[in-house]
Amino acid sequence: xxxxxxxxxxxxxxxxxxxxxxxxxxxxxxxxxxxxxxxxxxxxxxxxxxxxxxxxxxxxxxxxxxxxxxxxxxxxxxxxxxxxxxxxxxxxxxxxxxxxxxxxxxxxxxxxxxxxxxxxxxxxxxxxxxxxxxxxxxxxxxxxxxxxxxxxxxxxxxxxxxxxxxxxxxxxxxxxxxxxxxxxxxxxxxxxxxxxxxxxxxxxxxxxxxxxxxxxxxxxxxxxxxxxxxxxxxxxxxxxxxxxxxxxxxxxxxxxxxxxxxxxxxxxxxxxxxxxxxxxxxxxxxxxxxxxxxxxxxxxxxxxxxxxxxxxxxxxxxxxxxxxxxxxxxxxxxxxxxxxxxxxxxxxxxxxxxxxxxxxxxxxxxxxxxxxxxxxxxxxxxxxxxxxxxxxxxxxxxxxxxxxxxxxxxxxxxxxxxxxxxxxxxxxxxxxxxxxxxxxxxxxxxxxxxxxxxxxxxxxxxxxxxxxxxxxxxxxxxxxxxxxxxxxxxxxxxxxxxxxxxxxxxxxx
Length: 509
Ligand code: HEC
Ligand code: HEC
Hints:
This protein is mainly alpha-helical and 509 residues long. The protein has helices at residues 7-27, 29-50, 69-78, 196-200, 208-212, 222-234, 249-256, 264-267, 270-282, 290-295, 304-314, 363-366, 398-406, 408-413, 429-445, 458-468, 479-482, and strands at 154-155, 161-163, 178-179, 338-339, 375-376. Strand 1 and strand 2 form a beta hairpin.
């Protein structure tokens, strides 16, 4: 039959077939959905390949579990107020697992709170505390301790704890040394300890606002403060300062370090204290999420909106994307580098600028003009629970902090003041933030590589936020799941100084 058909007729027949086929594929309701979804999956698969993503930032890392004896000891230390000068603050004051590994505040209050065990909303500085002004006392937002063992280069918003090797997968434990505030820029601190997490944990106790307080130990050096605290915990030395009422730390250290006959002087050293704390922190691995499942092949782990958001995230401006990946790169969603994105500056500041209430970020460490107002790119894993966001906690919704990136000037001009605690010191917020944006604009004019201005529709912003929420490990949303990282009544309380956190309603966290 076909034999006699002209080419024209054949073409017609073919095109009829294709019209019918495409009607079948796209004409009817449910199958059109499928096509769109498949298109998104294809685009996203390309991105996953281009950026070499596996969904698993813990791959090839040697991270401890919470069950290990050293993690257990570290947990008790992390929750003990005995490590603060006047025994009213513990690490957990600002890094509670139930509060996303942070404190749920824009800016923290460490020492001299009205109620030391009240965390989050309702935590205020006591009017009898040093330097009282009604607002928060610590100048930067407390980052999460979740997944802290995945950092390889820098800790802190300005990277002042820094691996000199920066070898991927090593958390600074690559034999090349770690620079800390105790050593000068670019040189290793001999006492830093084996990884970045341990190195960092040597510092909160030396900060007057965070843990040390302004009283008894004023004028002492960092190493004197640490010596004092190890003696307090170990009940040895002269003078041991405040000895603890109950003290079974020696038994705890003997069993965790498996040295049953070692003495307090041998075992309860600041080195071992921070080793245990760092091990506990590094056991906080929360990397299971819908995005990972998607990469591993479960195509329905993400909704269409989340897929569209992911595509925006990983696409360049030329591809009509938001190019978030240019900084939030890799499976840990950070380049571990520093960028000025004109982030809102508020609070007491770091002593920078004319009035001392500005924060020059990375410049404070490098004195390099290019680093002025640059801050470290945060990881975005579990970002849904780590707010408020920004180095000064100026944004209390994910949508607002995402919008800020797209156009910092518009974000500053339209900043919604109702989102923050009115006690936060913000008289110079506009001037200080404008300085950062002006620097950003002049860098852009000079064609330096800076964050681009990007136009997105409201729907696209919703999609991006939906994608960010796929990075949440369900465990961090459940008290029950987090309970392994929080001591309870069945765990020993070696100094009776445990911080049992309560919220504003008096309920235990
Ligand atoms: C009063 C609140 C407060 C207390 C108490 C506190 N921290 Fe922090 N922590 C912060 C703030 C704020 C930062 C960020 C400071 C900066 O970047 O300049 C931070 C940073 C960190 C970081 C680096 C996070 C990152 O992503 O770079 C770790 C880890 C950490 N703290 C662990 C601890 C440990 C361990 C203790 C106890 C020894 C402790 N903190 C006590 C507020 C606190
Ligand atoms: C030029 C680099 C760069 C690009 C591009 C970028 N970010 Fe960021 N992002 C940062 C830096 C740096 C910070 C922290 C700034 C600060 O606190 O001063 C940040 C902060 C954030 C935060 C707050 C996290 C926290 O813990 O406080 C979120 C959420 C975020 N970025 C999402 C995005 C999204 C979504 C995109 C794409 C629209 C994006 N970022 C593009 C560098 C970048």
